[in-house]
Amino acid sequence: METTKKSKSKSGAKEAAVLKAYREYVLKEGKQPTSVFAFCQQLGIPEEEFYKHFASFEALERAIWQNFISTTRQKLEEDESYAGFSSREKILAFYFTLAEMLKSDRSFVLHQLKGWKNPGTMPTFLKGFKASFDEWIKGVVAMGVQSGEIAKRPYLDERYYMLFWLHLMFILQFWSHDESANFEKTDAAIEKSVNLAFDLIGKGILDNAIDFGKFLYQTAKN
Predict the structure, then answer these.
(1) CATH number of this structure's domain 61-221, picked from the four choices 1.10.287, 2.60.120, 3.40.50, 1.10.357
(2) What gap in Å lies between CA 86 and CA 139, rounded to an integer?
């Protein structure tokens, strides 16, 4: 048992080293390495070591983004009070935690988002990120429907999670363009847009719609 734990820990450390080296390479060179072989030579590891963890650079990038979701969920679940949150509170906590965590990888995140030229297509690096988010948000929405916090509507309540994916993309894009100190405007956008979202899928909309519209208008002016 102890040997197995040590082996997993060693493997995890090697994987983390590969991920870190890849981020640094992309940020310094502005592109992917020319090949796995060249990357491993520069890193000083045999090529087979890379393939123990990732099948390709694309798989590596998916792992980076998927880890953003899994780490966010882990942080939330470590908070004893999280289990008692309403659906609205859980989503707010998720977005705030994710935004805070992305700060440490902002340069890499911005580099990848800049390469996303067509909003109508799903970039490969976001596929695992979306799958993990969908899994989490479906549970939160189901809890909200059961408690009555989210309105149960035929054919719509099963698709609410799709709206929250679009919502998350809005927040990610807003954060990527936010130049305010400590990303305070992103925090405001999260709070206002989540309140609006719950008015749309719950009861009442007008007040928060006007408030959020004013916020976006004022942000565009500055």
Answers:
(1) 1.10.357
(2) 12
